[in-house]
């Protein structure tokens, strides 16, 4: 009796479509991450058009930006547990659907209050997508080496989103106004759902516990702290004092809930690990400076220097191009010298970049000096952030990689929220004191320089 051996050509024919499907699915997961991050930067160059359309002030623009990041940052602390409990693919797809529908509604928003509320909904959807993405990639690529390459591809989309945001936003605003920056998310969401519809990324349900009371308290703390800074920038001192007192009270409630919780939102063991606290401070400082700068500069470039939206987007290229080009260099430095040198160099470059930007704004020296400041800042970000992930993961106790990753992302988004609030408040206080928007922007970049220098010094001293 003759046994027929399977043809190797048949095996290759089966493997090739499977590989293509897996690649397409990874592209869909990465595209969702791109969409989430794009929404953090694409609105920046639309600020003047949005303000004119909805008749709002700088404080209103701050809430249009931070309404997204407040909820995104706070829910990142628990969204990993939600993903594990209900199945990552279900949480991911629900987040993408809500993001697409919410973006469409944002484009139709008739008033600022409705827009801010819808931006908060987008923050919920974004928090659902990001941790679930990592679980889906793990399911899709069980082999460790393949998974490492897949995660690198997924992470590379962050640089692309940061680089594309101002330019895409400027082009869309120039063509169709601020509402177009939200409409672009709708076809992206549809494409993501189509690419990730296969069975390969289906993840089982788990039984992780979630303390929703502590999670809600953490969200309230961040929102009230943001409101305090925005009110101070508008020189609404009674409002700022009331929100500041409420922030302290909400913080006490959060700490009490955390101490009593069987499933705390923040793992205190992680915070006590050597170097983790300083690393989290660096992550917060990077996003503080980046998001705050992306909020302040478009207002200055368009309102003071009369640049068009697309010209404003192109003006940010010295800042954003290093996000795409420099991370491979940073990776090689980390392999040879460790994570500390590029982190410390990155924070020094960001400090110098903020000082140069502050001086350029103060002296009205033209675009050349501003471009130098943007380039230094962009290089600093592209050195510090990739190395920081390595440093944080290396300092985390065994078995806590997922939790510390979630904590790092939440801290970074909290820094982004406070950066928009604090740097925007500096501009408002400077203008309110009669110094003008230019001087106010100088104060904003000096504040960012202090934040970068302080966090870098803490990291240097952490050993």
Highlighted features:
Growth Hormone, Chain: A, single chain, 3 domains, mainly alpha, 463 residues
Describe the model:
- The protein is mostly helical and 463 residues long.
- The chain has helices at 8-41, 47-54, 58-86, 88-107, 112-140, 144-176, 180-183, 185-195, 212-233, 237-260, 268-272, 276-304, 309-315, 317-325, 327-337, 340-363, 367-395, 401-432, 436-461.
- The chain crosses the membrane at residues 24-43, 63-82, 94-115, 121-141, 153-174, 180-200, 212-231, 237-257, 269-290, 310-329, 341-361, 367-395, 416-437, 443-461.
- GO terms for molecular function: transmembrane transporter activity.
- InterPro entries: MFS, MFS_dom, MFS_trans_sf.
- Residues 25-463 form the Major facilitator superfamily (MFS) profile domain.
Brief rundown of the structure:
With 463 residues, the chain is mainly alpha-helical. 83% of the residues lie in helices and 0% in strands. GO terms for molecular function: transmembrane transporter activity.
